[in-house]
Amino acid sequence: MTPAVVAPGTPWPTGAWARAAAPPALGALLDEAFDDPVYGETNAVVIVRDGAVVAERYGGLRPHFDRPAEPVGPTTELLSWSMAKSFLHALVGILVDEGRLDPAARAPVPEWADPDDPRHSITLADLLAMRSGLAFNEVYEVDGASDVVEMLFGEAKADTAGFAAAKALAAAPGTAFSYSSGTSNIVSRVVADVVGPGEPYRRFIDERLLEPLSMRARPEFDERGVFVASSFLHATALDFARFGLLYLRGGVADGRRVLSEEWVATAQRPTARDEESGEYYAWHWWVTGDAHGSYFASGYEGQMIVVAPALDSLVLRFGHTPETAYPALAAWRARVLDALAG
After folding, report:
1. pLDDT in tens, 113-163
2. Which of 124, 55, 111, 75 lies closest to 283, judged by CA?
3. Domain span at residue 27?
4. Residue 203: how many CA atoms within 13 Å on its side-chain side?
């Protein structure tokens, strides 16, 4: 039986998602995502249009340290990697909308409190735009001088923000784009300082973001009670889709405004262009610059939540793609959006 066409007014997925027929061209694109070795391993693809799931497929195995690997499916928790940065954007937005944080103000970071400190002038907006000027090596090399590996997996993992905030300037604040997971954890500590670290921060996430979205997710915290918002959020593919739907719906979930339209717009307004990838960066979201107005949360090894307002659509993909194949994955993403447009 062919599902009925679902209008853009489809109810929020508080329980099961509405389902609708997929455009014919999507089938071959899903086959490509899972079968073409250029993409490495694809674990999940979910595509939403007009509030209904039009495609959902899973594959591969999720490894475990203490038990055998399990097949990836609808109930499997998937790791966000840097898509957590876009989740942090929402948390900051809640506090900005309430007047509890001001992006234009100097970032309230204790390590930079001295007016004579050259980092003293760094603003919260600088941090959100990855223009802090702080030196931070983002390269994922276990045997190299990688700040991100040390912060996430070395001794610095106990105090991720403290490790990043101690870095010296490599450029004047606000002048140069430099993508940095350390920057995001500094922002997360700013949130923790407002709402309270540890359990109060966890409750803030649950009550102000997850519950309104009917979303289940598991954020990881460091020993200082700071959400490691650079990298560590776990949820199912369909729950990550609920997060994407919040932005697609302009900050409204199930009739309740969670984020202001003004704040959602900051996820779509480029502040820099990454010279290596050609992608544009907004405030903790990436912007494609395509005809569909699409922007996306992006994570290591090709995780993505693509929000395409002109198509009223979301494209989510999870897996393990080598960095050399990122351009191919970006081209696949563009072809999926074009199929939804056609």
Report:
1. 999 999 999 999 999 999 999 999 998 877 668 999 999 999 999 999 999
2. 124
3. 18-341
4. 7
Both tokens of residue 130? 């990855």
Report how far residue 238's alpha carbon sits from residue 317's, in angstroms, rounded to the nearest whole number: 11
How crowded is residue 337: how many other Cβ atoms within 10 Å of its Cβ?
Answer: 22
Q: Based on the structure, what is the number of domains in the chain?
A: 1
Residue found under tokens 């300037």: 169
In the chain, DSSP assigns E strands to: 18-19, 41-49, 52-58, 61-62, 70-71, 78-79, 218-219, 233-235, 252-253, 256-257, 272-273, 280-281, 286-287, 295-299, 303-308, 313-320
Report the alpha-carbon distance of residue 146 to residue 241 in Å, rounded: 31
- Pairing of the two strands 52-58 and 18-19: parallel
Instruction: Locate all alpha helices (DSSP H) within the chain, ordered by sequence.
Output: 26-35, 84-97, 124-128, 147-153, 160-165, 181-195, 199-205, 211-213, 237-248, 261-265, 326-341
> Domain holding 162: CATH number?
3.40.710.10
pTM of the model: 0.95
- On whether the CB atoms of residues 286 and 280 are closer than 8 A, the answer is yes
